[in-house]
Queue: 4 jobs
Job 1
Amino acid sequence: MANRPLPELLAPAGSPEALRAAIAAGADAVYFGGGAFNARMRAQNFDDEATEAAIRLCHAYGVKAYMTFNTLITDREMPAFLVAAEKAYLAGVDALIVADLGAAAVLRQALPLLPLHASTQCSAHNAAGARALAERGFCRVVPARELSAADIATIKRESNTEIEIFIHGALCVSHSGQCLFSSLVGGRSGNRGECAQPCRLPDANGKYPLSLKDLCLAREIPFFIENGIDSLKIEGRLKSPQYVYEVVSIYRRLLDERRAATDREMAALAAIFSRSGFTDGYFKGKVGREMLGVRTEADKQQSASKETTITLPPVPLALRFRMKANEPVALTLQKGEKTVTVTGDIPLVAQNAPMDAAAVSKNLCRFGGTPYTVAETDIDVDAGLMMPVSRLNALRRAALAALETEQRASAAQLPPLPQLQGTATAPTASFTSLAQLTPKARHYFARCYLPLALYDDRAAALTDSVAIPPVIMDHEWPDITKMLQKATERGAKHALVSNIGHLAAVKAAGLIPHGDLRLNICNSYAAADYLANGMTDLLLSPELTLPQMRDIGGARRAVIYGSLPLMLLEKCAGRELGGCTACDAGKVRLVDRRGEKFPVLRLPGSHRSVIYNSHPTVMSDRPRELMGAGLSNGHFLFTTETADQVDAVINAYQRATPLYQKIRRM
């Protein structure tokens, strides 16, 4: 381990003050968001001027600057998105963290030299997903936080890209990129940077079944070094500069000393911020109720420490200056291995007061208001010469600008909006049980998707379509591969695919892939990418409005009926909310403070569970609206419905009559 390179230590910055704290604490890189298109819109963030200053400051200290553009982008937003990305590129940003595959496709064409990092919002949870993202131009992937140590090692070993792992900070209970709770229930989209954190709220019983403790992997530093992980990321763009400074300082020490945290250091981290302690449950493969935690009064009192003054040491420069008769003056600045030289006017013959080295040094060594100080000078001035102070000041400013600026040229143009061909010719549906596949359903729907784990001989007699699990960790692939093989042997022909990392396996099995809503398709560029890579048709993100869906052409659908999935949980919520028997019977409900009841279903063949909306999306009596958006042949999502209820839903859509009283519209 002693000879292996250290991972990059990547720190959060929600404000300029937090950015300075991260640099002072020893971060190798800092990530921050601009005024739009980032997943922490509640942070102070950085406007254009602050962004340029932040990047200059980072580079002055040899720290990399990454910007988050990690929200979903619509077609109509794409021009503004590209303008913002180009500004970041021209300012010298080292990489953009991106969540939208359509946005990545645009950047790949418009700014091909700009490095792209795939956000954890891309839902990469296996090596195949990392490879698929690398094929789309990403040089780094931030995989799901739910990975175990073994799966992290596999994803690094079997992918062809840099891997960045979250090691400290708040945990979402849902898989990142797979949470619609805040959006569909509260009107504030987590995928658009406005999460209201409903998972931190109590339920009807005053308990907190969805609030996880903060992640802390400070004891696992040797593992990450040994397995060649490229970057270790600390969460916290909503945290204070003091938090950033103290947490980064501890991890900096652990990395430099290549060791695990001691009990004292773990206690120090908990004193900075915790929710009833920390968890490493996902990493250890121990997913259970011990991972739950809330911010108690004792936690708050423990964290109430006095503020530490955070200062940055000056950056030393070497300065050389030459002023010779009949030659342009020359000023050279050197910072580390970087050297720049600028030239100015030919000096004048002094009439009264010639300049000596001391006079020149007094004017050239003024770097107030910058991170720099002159540590070494070499000034060679011929006797009897002078130069106006204003010219010396201009020369110094020009040299500093050359030192700080990486010359980048760009004439980014938005690629033409893809003109997608084809249409969805008949409605389709997803089911959670075999009993829901009524004769009426099998006749009405072109494809009836049943979970892969339920596709036995009885199912094969009723449908030729399977739904691939939304999460497949690398250790689960052997079982999934066997299921795919048996499904094709039984006559399966179609597969509903909900993750980019599953597409290759589905095609290899000989199944026709269709895109699920979990792909988060919000623009034509993302749709074109999936269609070009083998998808036959696509389900659009339910966060889009009908006009936004209309903007995206081609063979696309939307969920026009059903209780939409709000959260995808790695842990089994049903066991805690109602017990295993109730969970298997589909009778578990999460009841919130207002009395709303959200169905919780276990994914067949796994311990994972899904929380669904308390009110179904219903458009049965709005056929003209669907037709106007080109979505007449939409997708139906059946969860807890009985066979009779399935038939009743179909009847309502056939007759264009209302359904239920409490519903959600598109």
Job 2
Amino acid sequence: MYQLVFSPRWFFGKDVIIDLVTVAALFTIFVFAIKYYKINKNKNYLWFGMAFLLMALSFIFKIATNFTIYYNVWHVKQIGPVLFTYKVLKKSDLLFYTGFLMYRVLMLLGLYVLFTRYIKQNNYVKILILYLLITIAYFSDYAYYVFHLTSFALLAMLAYHYFQNYQNRKVVSNLLLFASFALITLTQIIFVFVFYQPIFYVVAQMVQLVAYIMLIITLIMVQNYGKKKRKK
């Protein structure tokens, strides 16, 4: 049984490093959000932090999935007996599909939680959207681009919200926040094309790296601004 690997062979492992940077950025945002929640008890910070924690966990599953893929690629070359190779691949396939499913589910849940913080709906609509997202995450195994297009839709609305924030208050931190989410949104479209040309996977990963570095810079700027404000 074969597994589809979108990354070019020369990029193996480098995408894992990029995803580790992404996890660090998302987890740092989670920590700061919880810190602010403990200070002022504003539940928006709590939900904001939980959304980024879910996304951080999703990338951890993605990293584990990538290790499974790379293990299969290298192991098939080294082991001769067909029967033994098949058993190893079959076991790894279970890890691959479980990890990839958890990556999709947690990512969409994280984006959904962020989405609900800014776009208000009644409880019935929230439950319906949540059900549809979980269904999409499961069935996107058969059409991977469905997951990326769904993520694109949620991210585009979030990016637009942050753009409106920047329009209302034109400071550098708001601009960076909008730009980082705009780039993350762009990656989802780029990922759609990796089936046709693996180099798009590299491009998407590099754009993702820039986006999350910008998020870290934004967080540092907000933190420094908060310290200066408290001193005054």
Job 3
Amino acid sequence: MIHSHAFEPTLLPLVALLSSAAFLPVSELAQAARQLADSIASTRRVHAVHVEPIPVVDGPMLLPETAGGSELEFSNVTFSYDKAGSTVLEEIDFKVPAGARIALVGSSGAGKTTIANLVLRFWDPQQGSITIDGHDLREITLDSLREHIALVAQDTYLFNATLAENIRLARPDATQDDLDLAIQRAALTDFLASLPAGLETPVGERGVQLSGGQRQRISIARAFLKNAPVLILDEATSHLDAASEAHVRAALDELMVNRTTIIIAHRLSTIRAADQILVMRDGRIVERGKHRDLMSLGGFYAELIGHQSVGSAQVEYAALAGQ
């Protein structure tokens, strides 16, 4: 067309511009279609969560504030995550006096963490009852119950926010003095002093900029700040090296003072201070007592110690066996 003079060459830029302008709405329409498809998929996932049956129903009662811990009791508790599935806990009976420490010991899958989940009332047992200070957990509002309990788990979830904001999650209305005291008691003071921005330092998504020991001490600082009468330690030192564990364990020892504490342990060296050890196997309590008595019994607890054969845990188990 250009050679035949039916189309002026000077019009080429204009044609290219008009073609681009004409294609732009088509491109935007295609992008909108992709976004719509993503939104539909997301909506379906949200809907699936929305229609999921609620595993627990809120109770009407508020727990009164207590000092020095609360009494916990499991009475003939049987539980399975799926009513048609296998039983995870069977006929569990134990009592933790106010301010006492109890340790749950056993191989993986024995039901230790399930007991913690039931105390926090993520689920209700199919049989039996769980009480705190004589009140069935099903009678208590979830907010009131969970304000009464502090959890230090093996995996500490941190949000992409500052250190201060992550610690304040435990008690958003805490004063700066309360926050500073929790940081000091969790052995975080020296670490914060080494940071140019201090408490205003961003931790990154899930705390990727921090070490395992630092994340764990933030979890302990949360527990100090919350100041709850019941404390659950779920494998709180399982992923730490020896140096980090020494700092964390010292903070945990202080945290357990004057609190009812449930210690879930794989490293048996963490349970020496427990008032009672519950040894679990296949969802049942098979032995109970203090470390020395259980070792003398020569049962499953002693077998757990004897079978430990690798890593630092071997040294810890050997030290325990000699006590």
Job 4
Amino acid sequence: MADSSRIRARYIDPDGDRYGIPTFCWGLAPPGLATRRQLATLNLRPGGHDPVAQIMWRGHRRDRIALLYAIATAKPKRTATPRQRAALDKANTARRTCPECGHIKDYVIPGRFGRCLDCEYGPAEGTAA
């Protein structure tokens, strides 16, 4: 059941008369609808379809909205091609390569230093340079 502190009468509009789209309270959306993030966990995407409903709740200082999409009309997420994956691997390796010493690190080179932490602070104790 939804938290009663988040339920407001103004957020209940299942016909869409007030907001132009069916509106539900936090936790009270009908089954078969999901947010973009929920679709992503199911390896789905809206697939060009418009939202069919929304959830409204009171946020910190303003009303918050989450758009809902029909799971039945959602399409599978597209996967990257082998060439796209290779390009991403190359770009990520470049982000981890220190321009000063040339070593590939296990972390992204910090932008504030422009070089790896070993070059900035010296090698950590007990490690070889």
